[in-house]
Design brief:
Elements lengths: L9 E5 L6 H10 L3 E6 L3 H8 L3 H8 L3 E5 L5 H15 L5 E4 L22 H29 L2 E8 H4 L8 H5 L8 H20 L5 E8 L8 H7 L15 H8 L10 E4 L7
Parallel strand pairs: 1-2, 1-4, 2-3, 4-5, 5-6, 6-7
Helix pairs in contact: 1-3, 1-10, 4-5, 5-8
The structure holds nicotinamide-adenine-dinucleotide (NAD).
Length: 276
Amino acid sequence: MALFDLNDRVVVVTGCLGQLGRQFTGALAAHGARVVGIDRLGDVDGAQTLDGIPLLKQASGDGRLLYLGADVTDRASLETARDKAEAHYGVPVYGLVNNAALDAPPDSDAREFGPFETYPVENWDRIFSVNAKGPFLCCQVFGASMAEAERGSIVNVGSIYGILSPDQNLYQYRRDRGETFYKPVAYSASKSSLYNLTRYLAGYWGKEQVRVNIVTFAGVHNNQDPAFLERYLPKVPLGRMADAADYNGTIVYLMSDASAYMTGSNVVVDGGFSAL
Ligand SMILES: NC(=O)c1ccc[n+]([C@@H]2O[C@H](COP(=O)([O-])OP(=O)(O)OC[C@H]3O[C@@H](n4cnc5c(N)ncnc54)[C@H](O)[C@@H]3O)[C@@H](O)[C@H]2O)c1
């Protein structure tokens, strides 16, 4: 177990209130990290929200979670979060999980799922702002603390749709129903950018012993349409969507000394999706 013990390391998880962020926060805390959970709700709203999320309530009750409201697209709010976190825990940040992301914005109009030719540039900008600029800014702000302390680990959360194109045939059933639906371009293109951010920083911060890796995850169970599952699951050798907790081991591993000689790598955890 010592190999995977996180030894009170202070680890920032962005998007900690989301489906996977709460899992990563709970798993890191359970392995001995002190987590700084960041999301878009303000400090007070977020702290109240934690009560409704058992994994976060537990980590917070154990003194292993400090929730801070911050926007990953806003450098000043990240600097404030870093200063509050370091004052609270009394040591520089050790790790960062760049997890916050936007897929299709929830309030997007029909053009989000329309043809590529008319995909709105403002949607492209919003998604790139969170998914590409966000990790870049978090690496600048929190990575700087790690580089100065000459140790640390950054994990960028990628997606199979950042290494492969979405297969539009998977969504043909929606077009057959009369809907206009194409899986949009911006999420895939933005996630792709993280692979070279990872490699760039692995080279740049190697001497400072800051390790930078990326994880490539596939779709997670979330009440998907049975018609979608009927088409998607045959493409997954393990024959199922991921459970929300399936990725926790990878995140703990990359924050621990078990991965001490690993940097610039892409860890693919996708049930075999990209093997076919
Ligand atoms: N769920 C999946 O099927 C899946 C598959 C592969 C990869 N991923 C990746 O895993 C990560 C987590 O996905 P999820 O499904 O948990 O997403 P989610 O939508 O449930 O959670 C994302 C969180 O990020 C937060 N967030 C968004 N914009 C922000 C901003 N500007 N500043 C701060 N926080 C912000 C949201 O409030 C939310 O709590 C993402 O990077 C996603 O691309 C997810």
